[in-house]
Amino acid sequence: MIAERLDSTVCPHCRVAYDPPAPLRRPLTETFGSLEGLTKGRGCPACRRTGFLGRIGLFELVPADGDLPELIRAGAEPDALRAAARDAGYPSLWTDGVNKAKAGITSLEEVVDVLRDCPGRPPSLESLPQRLRS
User: Fold this and answer.
1) How far is CA 87 from CA 58, 98, 102, 121, in A?
2) Residue 130 pLDDT more than 80?
3) Residues with Cβ within 8 Å of residue 27, at least 6 apart in sequence
4) Please, what is the angle between helix 93-102 and helix 108-115, to 10°?
5) What is the pTM of this model?
6) Dihedral (C-alpha) 44, 38, 105, 115: value to the nearest 10 degrees?
């Protein structure tokens, strides 16, 4: 099984390190651990002042092994399949997105915007504004 989303990459010409606001940092730190190495684009002529230049995929790949084939045959609910995938050690879309933000490839706000409706988000993100980027 595979899931994917397309995410914007931080412009390499105007990339700067930054600390996200506490309402965003707190729930993501609780779920994904330390958030070091975050970047965002200031905006420059190369990225048309958006801070982003290019795209990258966020992926979740789960081979049908372990308990998954039996759960699928039994008609398990999606939440049970997701839990089995996490128990087997397969990362979620959210994990891939946050890891790419930690690597400075995309911004944390962009990950949250792109994956807002995907399962696995920290529940405390529900109260954040729909669009986080200015």
Assistant:
1) 20, 19, 23, 17
2) no
3) 122, 123, 124, 125
4) 160
5) 0.83
6) -110
